[in-house]
Amino acid sequence: MFKRFVDNALKAWADSPVHKPLVLRGARQVGKTTLVKRFAIQFDQFIHLNLERPEHRVLFESNHTFNDLVESLFFTFNKKRTAGRTLIFIDEIQSSAEAIRQLRYFHEDTPELYVIAAGSLLETLLNSGVSFPVGRVEYLAVRPCSFLEFLEANGETASVEMIEQARFPAFAHDKLMDWFHKYALVGGMPEVVQQYSQHKDVVALSKTYQSLLAGYTDDVEKYAKNPAMVQHIRHILRAGFGYAGERIKFEKFGNAEYRSREMGEAFRTLEKTMLLSLVYPTVSRQLPVLPNYKKSPRLFWLDTGLVNFAAGMQRDVFMAADIEAVWKGRIAEHIVGQELMAYNTDVLYKRYFWTREEKNATAEVDFVVAFQNNLIPIEVKSGDKGTLKSLHLFMASANHDIAIRISSMPYSKETIQLENKSYQLYNIPFYGISQIEKVLEQVNN
């Protein structure tokens, strides 16, 4: 298995003098269990529980005292309390509300133990009133593979090193764009990335995509709180990939007769499972970001590779000379949105876009990101500066002079002169998205 970005976060957690039980959040099949198993090599002992197995679940549900519970864990797995650092991994923890309650005592009574919990269907418990012990656990988001991880999996270590230094030399541009095009096609689901790195055959990935989508559909009854919601969620999983990157309305979504209230609830349920995100607009040009939840959100799915497969877009993406030309630019916007999430392990992290909606004068900027005390606009677009009308409108009243365009063009910087001010436009190629913050830091130094 290839190196993952979140490996560093796991190490930082273990190295901290105070390590509360760590809860990994992420959709099905983003690699949570694989990450922990590989991380366990750094410990002297590893106890792996899967609470979907009755013989493991009963350990937490036998009315033992907490001390007896801990002793039973070591006894059951033939381990010793005095044999060095021990990592306890409680997988599929959503299968036991009692196991979730017990996490607080690992923090309070056995701080010498290292405890990680994970589960793909945690919301089934959270929505029923069971909550994780406040202040006694930490959270870490696990997402699909980033572009840098995709390169790592394919042995492109020199490319990774160059990008991580925020170096974008002209001689490397075509090669790096070619790899990003592959990433936009294949996506970042770990099993898919692993298979592609071994065989370089996109067609052979179909069974894996089908299996992933079938697994999400099979989970619907676990997500839904009633039979009606089952149908609403299934409709979203059938029709929703075709709306990736678009602004959507809940009312009659996907040409169905379902009403806004019921579809909105189904979308928000799927959002909690981290299968999709509803990205809302803001009219803010400065911090804090104030999203308008009354306006139509844009729909972003977990992974662009799944979107391409489920929406029948693989051939178009594969054949395109420029991903900005595919599906009216929505694939390019979707993969940029995925990359903006990929390096952030905060489970509460949200993306936003900017809009000005006035009579006969609408404008949108694809994303806005916070940097230091400013809100930086990001436009995903090809062409020259004359096509950036929405970006110009944002910058005309912004309290800073920095904007970013993501495109297939090589890295460059240009000064844009508006009527009453000028601003610096940084043209960052798709493969440099991970280095936006580093580019901005260089600007300020």
Give a short overview.
Helices cover 40% and strands 18% of the residues.
Q: Any overview of this molecule?
A:
The chain is of the alpha/beta class. It folds into three domains: 6-141, 3-Layer(aba) Sandwich (Rossmann fold), CATH 3.40.50; 147-342, no CATH class; 352-444, no CATH class. 40% of the residues lie in helices and 18% in strands. It is built from 19 helices and 13 strands. An eight-stranded mixed beta sheet has the order 7-6-8-9-10-11-13-12, with helices on both faces. The longest helix has 17 residues, at 170-186. The mean pLDDT is 91.
How many structural domains does the protein architecture include?
3
Number of strand elements: 13
Largest sheet: 8 strands, mixed
- In quaternary terms, these chains amount to single chain
The separation of the N and C termini measures 38 Å
The percentage of residues in β strands lies in: 15-25%
Query: Which term fits the overall shape?
Result: globular
* Estimated radius of gyration: 23 Å
As a percent range, the share of helical residues equals 40-55%
Low-confidence stretches: none
Structural class: alpha/beta
Strand order of the largest sheet: 7-6-8-9-10-11-13-12
- What's the tally of helices? 19
What number is the mean pLDDT?
91
